[in-house]
Every structure is written in structure tokens, then in C-alpha cells.
Amino acid sequence: MDKVIVENLKVKKGNVAILRGISLTIRTHEILAVIGPAGSGKTTFLRCLNRLIDLEPELKPEGRITLEGVKIYGEGTDVSFLRRRIGMVFAVPNPLPMSILDNLTLGLRIHGLGGSGPITLERVERSLKAAYLWEEVKDRLKESALKLSGGQQQRLCLARSIMVDPELLLLDEPCSGLDPISTAKIEEALQGLKREMSIVLVTNNVKQASRCSDRTAFLLMGDLVEINNTDQIFTNPQDGRTSDYVSGRFG
Amino acid sequence: MRRHFEEVEEELRNRLLHMGGLVEEMIHWAGQALLERKEESLKKIAKNEEEVNQLHIEIDDRCLKLIALHQPTSADLRFIMACVKINSDLERVADQAVNISENTVVLLAQPQLKRKLLDIPRMVELAGGMLKDSLDAFVRKDVALAQAVVQRDEEEDQLKSEAFHELMQIMQADSSSIQRALGLILIARNLERIADHATNIAEDVIFMVLGKDIRHHAENKVR
Known about the structure:
With 251 residues, chain A is an alpha/beta fold. Chain A is built from 10 helices and 10 strands.
């Protein structure tokens, strides 16, 4: 089932096309990896999905994106509510200078969904377990999140993003600065999370896409070259450029 | 991600063992048809062969995807390499069982040779046992059991040579026995090939567990 439908998405910066008409779907309960060399438009694509691109007025998206049939760029779209439905984790961990617990409950408080009490604590525990962080922080929830290691901070950001039960989770190079063990924990967490939501994983790490995604989209210079099941992309890609990229011949 | 990989590996192992079980049945039925003259056992062989052929393709595909998607190294890579090779050996054992059944059809259409079936019953038992033990060694990562399989191959070779010799004598003494004796020679050859494939599997198990290649006495060569 399709969660998100992207139709002919174009983004320009002045006269330069960053995305040249991307059409694809994001299915329910899948991990869709988006791969491509630097400058291919991966991050711009991701930022269109939760309208983070609104923060860059010089970028004008055209085309149509619907989340369960509702236009993301429709008039009257509540962007704050949209971003509750679509969570995001960035390349650099960005915990706020407050306790681990407060970091986690911040989203609930912003959206008026509580932020304390046993139900919230249960939710905190669930999110931390899903992000493979619970065992490491369960006795230090009141400590500053900034005391955590880089890998732990990133898993905290993942836990924070799922506290408000998003339907779609966007990850922009979530493991780019992490060691292999932290990376493995995040990847394992994503396998569990996809049972609850759809996930779009933008990654420069082709092997990460092959290890943990169900489908893979390959972008090149703003074009969608190929999208298919990940096993097909990595064993029998249909486009020579995809083959060259996943084999490491360029990019 | 490790757990996810282990789950996929486990599925692969289970499919390969399922295939092994089907092939063991085929040898058993071929032996039963030949030694007990039970023609009905032959029908079951064709049915298993069809499934074995499908598994042959499916398991190769699983191995290809595991390598492409997970880039395994070290013990994981050796495990997958072993699966690819065992898959191929099992498919060929299945072909040998089919060959035995085809030769048996010809034999069953005629009266038995006056002399007993020489060492053929022992060859059936030995080849079937070697295959079973090689697969058990694979499951249990049991190097000692795998080595024992490799050592038993010599006995099967010896039995085949003796069978060939005796059957030649039978043919020389009685020309009416030629067709039946030839059928048995072919069957002895099929059984000897099954033992060779079981030996290959056992060698693959040793490589999988220890990372040591003992084929063609490679362990004695200077590298």
C-alpha cells in the first residue's frame, strides 16, 4: 500500500534544477533507501517530504506530494501537524541542551500530548528500547543528553523522533559520523521500526542501503535513474549508471 | 543488523537441509527399488527431483542476494560459499539417484542374476550414510565427523572396483547376463559418484569451520 505518492517533483534554485521531475511512491512498512552521489538531490528530496524546504525560500518545489491522499503542499496544510506525522533524523546528532528525558518528551509537550506521568514514561521506555538505547540510559534519564557519546546521541534523536508516533520517518545520513557498532544498532532499530511506520533512508553508504532497505531509489543529478526492490538493484540493476554506482565505479 | 543477517542465514541453512532431506530420501528409495525389487519406490524419486531442482535455483538465488546485500566476510562468507557448493553437490546427488532409478527399471524388467548383488547393498548403505553424516557435520559444524566421511570414500571406491571386476567376470562367463551386469556397473558408478559428492560436502564443511582447504591434499602443499 502506498503511504506517500510523489508526482513529478521539481525543485529549482534560480535557473539550476536540483530535482528534475521525480515520481515515486513510498509504501507502508517499508524502508526506502535513497542513494546517489553528492549533489544528486537526495537531501532536497527528503526535505520536500516534510516541507523543511519551506525554510529555504529560494527553493521552489513544483509537482505533487500526497500523504495518504492529502496534499502536503495543499492550501491550509498544518505544517506543524504534518511534521508530527513525518519525523526526521539528521546527519549530525542534535540533542537539545537538556536532560535525556526532557529531550524525549519535548515533542509531546509541543504538540500538547502531555509530557509527564506514567503513560509518558512508558512511551519513553518504548521509544528508547526501539532505538536500542534503553539499557544504556535507563538509570540516567535525568542527566544531560550532551553527556552521551555521538552514537548514543543519534539513537536518542531517533527515539525522540518516534515519541510522537510518526507514520513516516525520514533519515538523512543518520550514521555518517558513527562507528560500525553504533551504525549496526541504528540499522537494527530501523528493522523493528518499519513494522510501525514507513522509513526513507538517505545514505551515501551504498552498503548500508543494501543491508537494510526493502527498496532502493538511485538519484543522479536530480533525476530518478531507477527505483526497484533492493535485491534487484544490487544483483541486476536495469540501468548501467545504477550498476556503475553500486559497484563503486563512480560517486 | 547482525540479527537480521542471522535470520536470513538461518533461513538459507534450513532450505539447504530440507533439500538434503529430499536427496537422502531419493537414495533410500533408489536402494529399496534395487535391492528389494520395489518398483513403486521409483515413482517417489521423480517427485522429489522436481522439488530438488527448484531448491537448487532458489538456494543459489538466496546466496547471491546474501552476498550482494550483506557483503559477508570471514566465517559468514565461508558459510555462504559452503552453501553454494553443497547446493550444487546435492543437486548432482539427486541426478545420480535418478540415474540409479532408470537403470533399476531395466533390471527389474528381467529376472535377477543368479549371483547375489555383490557389494552393491553395502555401497548403497555407505553412500547414503556418507551423505547423511556430511549434512550432520554441516549442521553441527563437526569437523571430526566430516573427516570421517572423507576417509570412508576410499572404501566406496574399493567396492566399486571390486564390483566392476566381478561383473566383468559374470559377463565373460554368460553373455545373456550382459545387459543386467552392465546395469549394475552403471549403478555401482552412480553410487561411487554419490560418495564423491558427500566427500565434497564434508570437505566444504571443514573449510567452512576451520578455513582450511583439504581438497586434493592441499593442506600438505607449500603455499
